[in-house]
Amino acid sequence: MNDNETKSNTFIQWLQATPLRKGLLSTILIFVALAMVAKTVLLFKQAAHVGVSDDYPQSVTVTGKAEEYVQPDTLQFNISINEEGKNVTEATTKASDKTKQAIAVLKANGVEEKNIKTTNYSVSDKYDSVSQPCPVASISPAGDMRTIAPCTNTTSQIVGAIVYQTLEVKIRDIAKNATTDQRAKLVGELAAANVKTDGFTFTVFDLDAVKARVRAEAIQKAKDDARVLARNLGVNLRTISGFSEQGEGGYAPYMSARAESAVMMKDAAMPVPAPQLPAGEQKVTSVITLTYLIK
Questions:
Q1: Model pLDDT for residues 89-113, shown as the tens digit of each residue
Q2: CA angle, corner 253, sides to 251 and 257, nearest 5?
């Protein structure tokens, strides 16, 4: 028996000398056995996956795009009224008179009162710079008066009030109620009355219906493309696992007509030129992306 065997036997005898040491030996042997079993199970699992691909879901993504040009059927613009006065009462009276005048022109041109809405009304102070001479009092050490350069003190003071009012005007069914000639006449008469207009926008009243129609067409194009792609790849389509949409209801033409030219005309007999306000077309676009699971 060599020295190593002698030492091993001595250690085992030492462990078995008392019940506590025997329990420690049993615990060590149990842990060693469990570790060997766990390693064996892991090796079997790894061997079972050799040569087998990962079972992740495979997918394809397709895109469909559709767009439609539609004729606008609604005209919208703003009327801006800014009137000044020595006090709030005077400024309010002037603004009220100008508003009544603008509404009268609108009604005379077939705009219903329900389509005229106030979107802003505010009253603010009007400030102006007021200059006052500086007090002059300078005496030399000798007691004689010195002449100094004149100066002024400038302060900001309230000198009146300003009333701001904005009206939003909306005309639907412009093919009937606001043709090219009719809207030119309307804006021309507002300019002649020194009423300022801006923010002319043409749009489609039921734009959601147009968007839904364009979206349905884009979805159908994406589905058709998916079937062609699956046939070319030799796979079968399963369910749709992803959907996204990019769309726009953009409208390129934006027209602004300012009626300030009427103020600049010194000749009262000179007619105010009627502006041309073409409606153009509105483009509605939808881009659909679909993701299919395949097998």
A1: 999 999 999 999 999 999 999 999 9
A2: 135
